[in-house]
Write a structure and sequence with these properties.
heterodimer, A: about 70 residues, mainly alpha, elongated, B: about 250 residues, two-stranded antiparallel sheet, two-stranded antiparallel ribbon, 6 helices, globular
């Protein structure tokens, strides 16, 4: 166990926390909207996927940092 | 004893296979050529047989995909959808074929040995940061092009706004945001696909029997979602850029 492994674990662990909460909120709100207005399914799904993609991008940045620590 | 990570064939950058006139042919270039070849062959094979009123199997397949995507494009871009459709669909096809091709057996398991180290001869184009950043630059350049084409010089007022000090700063921020979009496009696709490949290698090395199967299923899903996200985001940015600012 060297400092590098700890850095990798911390980077992805802390970096995945925010997006996890964010994606949960987005999907929950989308389901709420869907329950209130089931006809708007297509628009809600498209916007939900867009929102999730933005939130997930942040976890991916953390992942890229981890990969850079590991391989460069 | 567990295998060491460093024994696995994981490399962040694409590996150089050969050099033609100082131009390095990496394994991801070979992968790109393969993906391009597959899509071109599919397109030609539909056209050589001829587009018939009663479609055959191949034509039916192509029509289903194209129609579904065109409907989807219509629902987001409305009146401009026919203008944007070729760009979006090209991006979508290229990304999804390159994502899914990497999952086929043989794609990344045929190795070549050179100077004491071995590396796969093909690499998925979207697992190379150069390709994904190039796709991101392409899509953001298309956004600027269509903005100027539909709004003329008034599109510039999105970036250089002299109505007031706050508007000026907002314009500068928009300019920085365009660069951030390129990086975001590139890293999102690269991160997802490369992480998927690393996950497959690790799962296959630790428990070779059965454990890669659910990972493969998840990678199919991730590959589709990432291609879709790239296409939707480009489409949304395109439709935002051709609308008059308020």
């Amino acid at each position: 166990m060297d400092l590098k492994s700890i850095a990798m674990g911390l980077a992805i662990g802390l970096g995945a926390m925010g997006p996890g909460i964010g994606i949960g909120i987005i999907a929950g709100k989308a389901l709420e909207a869907l329950g209130r207005n089931p006809e708007a399914q297509n628009i809600i799904r498209t916007n939900m996927i867009l929102g999730i993609a933005f939130a997930e991008a942040i976890a991916i940045y953390a992942l890229v940092v981890v990969l850079i620590i590991r391989f460069v | 004893m567990l295998p060491k990570i460093k024994d696995m064939l994981i490399s962040l950058a694409a590996e150089k296979v050969t050099t033609i006139f100082t131009f390095n042919i990496t394994n991801s270039v070979l992968g790109t050529l393969l993906v391009d070849g597959l899509i071109i062959i599919l397109a030609i094979s539909v056209n050589v047989v001829g587009v018939k009123k009663i479609p055959g199997a191949v034509q039916n397949f192509v029509e289903i995909i194209t129609e579904a995507f065109l409907d989807f494009c219509d629902s987001i871009a409305h009146s401009k959808s026919r203008v944007f459709f070729p760009i979006i669909f090209t991006l979508f096809l290229f990304i999804i074929v390159s994502n899914w091709l990497a999952l086929l057996p043989g794609f990344s398991s045929i190795l070549i040995k050179e100077a004491g180290r071995s590396f796969p001869i093909f690499r998925s184009p979207s697992a190379d940061l150069n390709t994904t950043l190039a796709l991101g630059i392409f899509s953001i350049t298309a956004v600027q092009y269509f903005g100027f084409r539909y709004l003329g010089l008034s599109y510039l007022s999105k970036y250089i706004n002299v109505k007031g000090p706050i508007d000026f700063m907002v314009g500068l921020l928009e300019l920085v945001l365009e660069l951030a979009k390129v990086a975001s496009f590139g890293f999102r696709l690269f991160g997802n696909i490369f992480a998927g490949e690393v996950l497959l290698i690790v799962a296959g090395t630790l428990i070779p029997l059965f454990s890669p199967i659910p990972v493969l299923g998840m990678e199919l899903f991730v590959g589709f979602i990432q291609a879709l996200v790239f296409a939707i985001l480009t489409l949304v940015f395109l439709s935002m850029s051709v609308e008059k600012a308020h």
